[in-house]
UniProtKB/TrEMBL annotation, chains A, B, C, D, E, F:
Enzyme Commission no: 2.3.-.-
Source organism, top-level taxon: Bacteria
Molecular function (Gene Ontology), one example: acyltransferase activity
Keywords: Acyltransferase, Transferase
A Pfam short name: Acetyltransf_3
Protein known as: GNAT family N-acetyltransferase
Length: 191, 191, 191, 191, 191, 191
């Protein structure tokens, strides 16, 4: 029921239990695509795992440490985007996202992520937003780059991905930078 | 961020921690009006109590037993409406609401409550929605009556209200009835 | 060990873990009889479920929200009666009960329920006692009727019973009424 | 409500929240008497502490580790007796008790303790019951001695009592011994 | 990593998760030896049970109620010794221990237990240390006897050991006694 | 009791409740020095806060997410070093530390941190160790630099320090690198 309208084809819907099936479906049809960069794909063997995930993100919403949303493209669940590890003491958070394979190339993720940064900075009042991506995941890295995030580091062997360690590139933007530059940025929105 | 659009002047916004101040303000300016029928008004002595309330309703959202929303009228918090005591086993819930004094007489509550019944029945898939009101609270009783709920009982001395017991009138609507009648009902919307 | 003496053939015994077997036996021998009106019968597949139930009612006793007792008829467990959902804020509770099939017709349930109402009003100091029964369960409805409860409502589709919704009739009595009428009422005690 | 009848002047009543006031009163009027041997007396400064104690013993009842009862003498709370630290694995428990000063000398405690040993052995099915008393507390030691317990040890400096360590004498009885001797014991019942 | 050095061949290592395998191995190779006196041996069917045990003792370390250590003999886990049931109110604790069969006869346990008593009295500041052993377990009883503990009692049928009850002998030492005698005691260290 | 010996003047002692006073003292005498870079100094107003901190790190030890140690220099508590946020899934952790002002300039922190890296990699088997320091805190940054960590990033406005945001420099070392280079590194040990 609860949505944030982005534009005529995109909105973000707060994850509720009713969404588990649609989330599972779009993940399930894109497994080989998603598992390249997401460590949890193989462990999500059935909709029961997605229901546990939904419960977990609803708990995080309740305790104030995260907000996860379904990306609705023309009314359909296309993927997820959310803020995680909200740290009130240091006024910062990080954003995570994934998109079903057939929704790629429409600029969905850039617009959805921009909306989440707006939410984190304007509504939640946070000072810093971080995005981490595996260093070889160029598609994922293109999102913060298009949105004007600064590349701040290359964290080596930061994550175990099935059979190897991968490095993480860290991008950050501060509230000051976002408010100055964020509005009139012309972002080419291919993903 | 997360809203349900009702019409050009009304929407429902899922309660988040950022809303505590606005909720407290509208309650605080309507104390004498609200305490006639709401047992918690005198106990809400400062915004800290409202913050505890917000935490409580976010916990209920997370565990699936309730959903509380701010009624936004022309962008301002005008009151609250929510579903409570969601009972999946018996597929039913009850709706509660209150409105700041200066927002009365605009048909706000009938439209907001209609939207919550739609949410309970169409999105949550529940079979029965109940509304209880103190039997002498005619304003509150008019909401389920306008929305076509059936009066099912008069529960005597059901609630202790500061210094006396008040009776409750119980109204109910089933999913079958709502789906048949709900769409084309012409509701005069004064409250 | 802990009992409330009603008369020479009846007493109420606070449920303890040692009672699980006797409770399960009387329920098990009356399954087809009890499942007409009790939603939990089919789910109670073994004594393990009854042990979980006993633990649950002991937790309610500890947190002050309920008291469940075995009805002992000539020293044997004949059924259960208890107060549930004790609501101190509004000073009310509701009573639930069931009886093994072979104990029906001896006036057991009326006497046992009268004792629980006495306990709720005189010992716990509550102001209102409620009894709900499925509207077609005439045997169950006869208990509050014999004890002078007032019929207060007919809650439609209040409960999902295996394969259909059933309506609930709500009966209530207040402490004032009970103290006035309760003592010298001549109740014909067939159930 | 829930009592165990011992004889025409004595019964044991399971501790419920309603008993806190009477328990506090009898303790409060006997402070100087009780503090000689009970470490918690000085810490029980108001009825709030007794309410916490009642909650604690109700929690123990619910989790199966203890059962505490008010000793009712001619209908009045005279003291407490209970089983503690119920150890199902090794099938044993220990008994603790105290009596208001003006109830001493009537044989109350011996009869009440005998009833608790019966409860532990016959109803709970435990194999061993232990009673510990400070070695100089001759009144308390006389209870297990009259009831035929065996003195098993002298545990030195077992308890810190306000300003000094006191030794404990340990007494024990097994289910076998109790069943053999327990019935026809002629106990002089002065305390 | 964290060890207490006793002498050139013995040290005590605080139990950490990494130790589960070595603990399980030494227990597993000594099953028939250990089960004579330890009730948990048969229940420890796989390393998973030992991991649960390690988690349990780490929780006790965190909440201040116990400290368990691996006895390292020439760098190998030879058994366990720890303080349990730490009772700050009465300033006392008890010590438990076991040794793999092939490590017997080297005086290991006497030295390890002496170190734990030192830790309890000098570092934790406790006033009393207790050791309990089954009365027929002469090897275990020899430890407190060599260390100058006083035999304080014989608790009959204190423990259920697979198929029978066994009696416990209780030994105790006070901080005063230990500080006077503990230093220059010449203990023959065969076990 | 439980220590890791580094050299004749340095050891690491697992934090226990008995250490709270010494930790508080060394922190308290170095407040103005420590608060330049540690956000918790002003909030640690009394030893009660240090006791809560000790309880928190003992809980982390128990749940496997961190290990905190007192740095003992010539037997005195000189500061703390520990591993935090142990992430088994990705096999990594981070190290944090602080030193009392009068212990600076003796090479204490480099040796203590080296020991913690050894512990994390050799005993805990972790693959990556991270150290973060405020970018202007050159003393703190010198530790990972001396120990051969690689500088991986500069996280802007990563922490709120009383009245301003500070940037963090991230350093990392992998198990492979540490095992190759760690042994024969000649570290000048001034801090």
């Amino acid at each position: 029921m609860f949505k944030h309208y982005i534009d005529e084809e995109l909105s973000l819907k707060l994850v509720e239990p009713e969404d588990a099936e649609a989330i599972y479906q779009v993940m399930d049809e894109s497994r080989s695509h998603l598992r390249s960069w997401l460590a949890w794909v193989d462990g999500t063997e059935s909709i029961e795992h997605t229901k546990e995930f939904v419960q977990m993100v609803m708990n995080k919403f309740a305790d104030g440490t995260g907000v996860s949303t379904c990306i609705l493209y023309q009314g359909q669940v296309a993927g997820l985007v959310g803020i995680h590890a909200v740290d009130r003491k240091n006024s910062k958070t990080s954003i995570g996202y994934w998109l079903g394979e057939r929704f790629i190339g429409k600029g969905i993720m850039t617009r959805a992520t921009k909306a989440m940064v707006d939410y984190a900075i304007y509504e939640k009042g946070l000072n810093r937003v971080e995005i981490r991506a595996a260093s070889e995941n160029l598609k994922s890295r293109s999102i913060p780059e298009r949105l004007g995030f600064i590349q701040e580091g290359n964290i080596r062997q930061a994550e175990w991905l099935y059979d190897q360690y991968v490095d993480h590139v860290v991008y950050g933007v501060t509230a000051g930078e976002w408010k100055t530059n964020g509005q009139n940025r012309g972002c080419p929105l291919e993903w």
